């Protein structure tokens, strides 16, 4: 592989963090450490889109959680966000702006549906041709997106769900487009139907959320 030389200046704190990755075996030196970090970061570009589920009677109460989710997605280079709304959808649109103009750094579009979490996602099938996130949270939740993507990429399931517990299936879901083969047209639930089917077939993995 052809290599190029570049010169950069970084803070001492960042330099110490970079050097802490050097183990003499997998990471040989500072240049190798920087290249490894950049490679990990750029791999995140394989996931470009996230769908945030914001329907239901508690939709407006989810706004702080949606804001935190968007903030996390933006920090990891995911700038395409679709907010799926239903009941009280107008309030969600008013908060973030008709075109998402009240949120900087991301492109927000809306999808209106009354077909449940599964049905709403199925209706977005034509827009989701590569790995994508689905976020369904009521409270602000922090997830290590980098490690979640790495875990999903290494194990290659159809779905990886980052959840606090098996009883509470709300969280961050990372899906492959093949997931649409398991979602029927019309009303359906990701949590009550899709996840059950994928679990039985060994095509769903769980990734724990600590906080």
Keywords:
211 residues, alpha/beta, Spore Coat Polysaccharide Biosynthesis Protein SpsA, Chain A, 2 domains, 7-stranded mixed β-sheet, 7 strands, 18% strand, globular
What does this structure look like?
- The protein is of the alpha/beta class.
- The chain has 2 domains: 12-43; 47-208, Spore Coat Polysaccharide Biosynthesis Protein SpsA, Chain A (Alpha-Beta Complex), CATH 3.90.550.10.
- Helices cover 34% and strands 18% of the residues.
- It contains 7 helices and 7 strands; from the N terminus they run ααβαβαβαβαββαβ.
- The protein has helices at 12-19, 30-43, 63-75, 89-96, 116-122, 145-155, 190-200, and strands at 49-53, 80-85, 107-112, 132-136, 159-163, 171-175, 204-208.
- Strands 3-2-1-4-6-5-7 form a 7-stranded mixed beta sheet, sandwiched between helices.
- Helix 5 (116-122) crosses helix 7.
- The longest helix has 14 residues, at 30-43.
- The protein is globular and about 55 Å long.
- 32% of the residues are buried.
- The model has no long low-confidence stretch (mean pLDDT 89).
Task: Present the secondary structure layout.
Elements: H1 12-19, H2 30-43, E1 49-53, H3 63-75, E2 80-85, H4 89-96, E3 107-112, H5 116-122, E4 132-136, H6 145-155, E5 159-163, E6 171-175, H7 190-200, E7 204-208
Parallel strand pairs: 1-2, 1-4, 2-3, 5-7
Antiparallel strand pairs: 4-6, 5-6
């Amino acid at each position: 592989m052809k290599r190029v030389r570049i010169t950069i200046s970084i803070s001492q704190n960042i330099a110490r963090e970079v050097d802490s990755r050097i183990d003499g075996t997998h990471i040989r030196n500072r240049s190798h450490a920087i290249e490894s970090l950049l490679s990990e970061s750029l791999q995140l570009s394989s996931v470009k889109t996230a769908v945030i589920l914001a329907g239901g009677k508690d939709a407006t109460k989810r706004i702080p959680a949606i804001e935190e989710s968007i903030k996390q997605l933006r920090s990891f280079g995911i700038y395409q966000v679709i907010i799926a709304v239903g009941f009280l959808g107008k309030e969600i649109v008013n908060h973030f702006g008709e075109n998402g103009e009240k949120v900087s750094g991301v492109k927000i579009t809306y999808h209106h549906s009354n077909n449940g979490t599964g049905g709403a996602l199925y209706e977005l099938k034509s827009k989701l041709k590569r790995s994508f996130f689905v976020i369904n949270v009521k409270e602000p939740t922090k997830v290590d997106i980098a490690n979640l993507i790495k875990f999903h990429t290494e194990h290659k399931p159809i779905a990886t769900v980052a959840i606090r517990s098996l009883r509470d299936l709300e969280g961050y879901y990372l899906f492959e487009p093949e997931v649409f083969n398991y979602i029927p047209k019309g009303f359906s639930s990701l949590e009550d139907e899709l996840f059950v089917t994928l679990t039985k077939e060994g095509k769903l993995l769980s990734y724990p959320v600590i906080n």
